[in-house]
Design goal:
Length: 743
């Protein structure tokens, strides 16, 4: 079942068989060990069996041409003997080390024996009668497939939920474990607190049978001998596992104060290297998590509650978060570090009234209207929450940035929340945490899977994310940029009032649901009279903006029109002055007048430098004067990015230190914008490549284990300067009210 992928060009597989069985709730119990750079513990998964069960003979071939099914298609039934040699299917009875809370130890090496971790080598179920596609296949056992990568799985077992005291209070069949789980996940929304409580109790119940499991590069496969359908498969299982220091879902690094921290950073593989899960977005689930770390650390998560630490013993604290709104597993976020909370110096009674938290437990479900999502304690049904302009919020930052956050960022949050409420309506989440992450944060957002980016979905529910493992595609984030300009184009075309009125209606109708671009565009066009649609249609929008490469034609026309702008004309005049400055000889004539250079705005500076990048040569005197005139090394990331391009292109060694600073401090604000063409740096002198590799080592230096060596685009940065691009300072809003800020 193992899949060999070339990460430079191939797609990211979503292996989970979500058509047969769905995770409804995760309970995580984890310990964070900074010395070993691992997160270890258990995860309990509560399932609901799906409705797509197709009986197929063992000779039936899959119509979905994925690599996973190609690997399994040749398997034929054999006697039920399960060989132990030359296989990686193991019984979870094999030994494992007990967990040590807040323990210190060596880095994880459990994968060295080849038994329990994701190695990129051939693998499969021990008896070849077990096919990777699941459901009822006659005599074959049902196979649960979870998305998993870079994890060492130590044990898998069924959980005896029937042993939980008091479980008989809400179930008609206290001795039937699967029936207990079915009734637990089906509890109504107004009993959410009781539901979370019993999820927690069930997660601590003893095991009642260890399950066979197999693990390969991209998935964890679990089966129970003799169980042939998803309906009969255990609906509550516990997985004991540990992450790896090189796992690609989290970053182990240092904050701006030099203290260690770890956080999810929007990895292309999402969270599958943090915990086994179902990646396809159809697997909407809730979760709760208990995370233990040394008492000096703060644990932040994308939970609905504002967790406070509980001291377990001297030097160790525990944090508990939960979510009651079902969402894809990729939206789960965690950050652990020595953060300090920034609070307002004076908090008025009016502010307290405005920011009062309305928990689902206190919800007054009197709001007129019916939501279209699956049942959960929704704030749109809470009359009080719908009028709450400013939700409770917290800001966390390294100690060295506390003052700056207090002075600059903290006053901005309330008006931003109020503006969002005025435009979009009810805040879908009850709170917001803002975290100042290190400047080398490597992503502008999570590569969340969605139907528009995946290939054909198989009967089991598995699919792929197109270009999901292509590093250039990941760094480009073109879909974010084109999506922004499309929304901007629609707002201008339809008018602000019409567009923002539609957005509010759209959020109210589709909150809590999975939607496609077609849904958004169709509702937008249907909400305006036909005579005002101005020849817009879903088909031509898709053709112009989503299915065509390059800059869309409407944006090209807008760009040409913008050339007449007064600010642009001012930049053009300044470009002409700099061209003349560059052409002057070193020794000028006495009567020759000095060019008078105008002050420019940051956006104008970006445009100026982009025009100067088109010049074939700029001499060192010009570059020196350019930097001194505009103080380019002190400007924002967008300006400094273009300045670095000029420095590299013209080999201006006096300013190489500015490039080094940019590479080390602004890793999250740049990305390659295209494949290098022509000659690459293999012919470049080693002396000019070495600083780049030093910068990479300083920026990653064992801290970003997901990228252990410099990518190709960094190696050619000196020879092909236009590979750099930047996004500037940004605010990334992560679901369930957690935000990360890169300054």
């Amino acid at each position: 079942m193992d899949i060999k992928l070339d990460p430079s060009r191939d797609d990211l597989p979503l292996m989970a068989n979500t058509s047969h069985i769905l995770v409804k709730h995760y309970v995580l119990d984890l310990d964070v060990d900074f010395e070993s750079q691992i997160i270890e513990g258990t995860i309990v998964l509560f399932f609901e069996s799906g409705n797509k069960f197709k009986k197929q003979s063992s000779s039936t071939e899959e119509t979905y041409p994925s690599e996973s099914n190609k690997a399994c298609k040749f398997r034929t039934p054999e006697p039920c003997h399960i060989p132990v040699t030359n296989t990686r299917t193991v019984s979870s009875k094999m030994g494992y080390n007990d967990l040590v809370i807040c323990g210190k130890g060596e880095k994880d090496t459990s994968g060295k024996d080849g038994n329990h971790d994701n190695q990129e080598q051939a693998s499969g179920i021990s008896s070849s009668k077990y096919c990777c596609d699941t459901g009822n296949h006659g005599s074959e056992d049902f196979l649960l497939v979870l998305d998993c990568c870079d994890l060492s799985v130590l044990k898998v077992e069924e959980v005896d939920v029937a042993a939980v005291p008091g479980i008989e209070k809400f179930t008609r069949s206290p001795k039937l474990r699967n029936q207990i789980v079915r009734e637990l996940v089906a509890l109504p929304a107004d009993r959410w607190r009781e539901q979370l409580d019993y999820y927690a109790r069930c997660s601590q119940a003893p095991g009642c049978g260890e399950l066979l499991f197999d693990i390969d590069t991209w998935s964890l496969q679990i089966r129970k001998t003799g169980v042939q359908t998803a309906t009969d498969f255990p609906h509550a299982i516990r997985i004991q596992y540990t992450t790896k220091p090189q796992g690609r879902s989290v970053t182990w690094t240092s904050d701006q104060s030099g203290r260690p921290c770890v956080y999810t950073m929007g990895s292309p593989i999402n969270n599958r290297a943090l915990f086994p899960c179902q990646e396809p977005p159809v697997a909407m689930s809730t979760w709760q998590a208990t995370v233990r770390a040394a008492a000096s650390f703060v644990v932040l998560m994308s939970g609905e509650n504002s967790a406070k630490p509980t001291q377990l013993r001297e030097g160790c604290s525990s944090w508990h978060y939960y979510v009651t709104m079902p969402m894809p597993a990729s939206t789960f976020t965690i950050a652990v570090g020595s953060w300090t909370e920034t609070k307002p110096e004076i908090c008025s009674s009016d502010d307290l009234a405005t920011e009062k938290s309305f928990s689902p437990f206190e919800a007054d479900f009197r709001y007129v209207g019916v939501c279209g999502h699956m049942e959960y304690p929704c704030r749109f049904q809470n009359a009080s929450a719908t009028t709450q302009e400013i939700i409770p919020h917290r800001i966390f930052a390294p100690v060295c940035l506390k003052g700056a956050c207090q002075e600059t960022l903290l006053p901005l949050i309330p008006p931003c929340l109020s503006a969002a409420h005025s435009v979009l309506g009810t805040h879908p989440f009850s709170r917001l945490d803002v975290l100042i992450v290190p400047a080398n944060f490597p992503s502008l957002g999570m590569a969340r899977p969605n139907k528009e980016k995946t290939g054909h979905v198989s009967d089991s529910g598995s699919s792929v994310i197109k270009h999901g493992l292509n590093p250039d595609k990941v760094f480009m984030q073109v879909h974010y940029l084109k999506g922004y300009f499309l929304l901007r184009f629609l707002a201008r075309r339809l008018g602000g009032d019409t567009y923002f009125s539609f957005l509010r209606k759209f959020v109210h109708k589709f909150h809590g649901q999975l939607i496609l671009s077609q849904d958004f565009l169709q509702m937008l066009l249907e909400s305006i009279p036909e005579e005002r649609r101005l020849e817009l249609s879903v088909e031509n929008i898709f053709q112009d903006w989503l299915e065509s490469s390059g800059i869309p034609q409407p944006l090209q026309r807008e760009r040409l029109a913008g050339a007449e702008c007064g600010l642009v004309r001012q930049v053009s005049a300044e470009v002409a002055k700099w061209v003349r400055v560059n052409r002057r000889p070193r020794k000028r004539k006495r009567k020759e007048t000095e060019e008078v250079l105008e002050k420019l705005l940051p956006d104008q500076l970006v445009l100026l430098l982009e025009h100067l990048l088109e010049q074939r040569t700029l001499n060192p005197r010009t570059l020196q004067r350019l930097e001194r005139t505009y103080h380019l090394s002190e400007q924002d990331a967008e300006v400094r990015h273009r300045w670095c391009e000029l420095v590299v292109k013209h080999k201006y060694t006096e300013a190489y230190r500015h490039v080094e600073r940019f590479l080390q401090e602004d890793r999250g604000k740049r990305s390659p914008c295209k494949e290098p063409t022509g000659s690459t740096c293999v012919h470049e002198p080693v002396g000019r490549r070495f600083p780049c590799r030093l910068c990479w080592a300083a920026a990653y230096g064992g801290q970003h284990s997901a990228t252990p060596c410099p990518p190709a685009w960094l190696s050619v940065v000196v020879h092909v300067p236009w590979l750099l691009s930047a996004a500037g300072s940004w605010l990334q809003l992560v679901p369930v009210g957690v935000a990360s800020v890169c300054l």
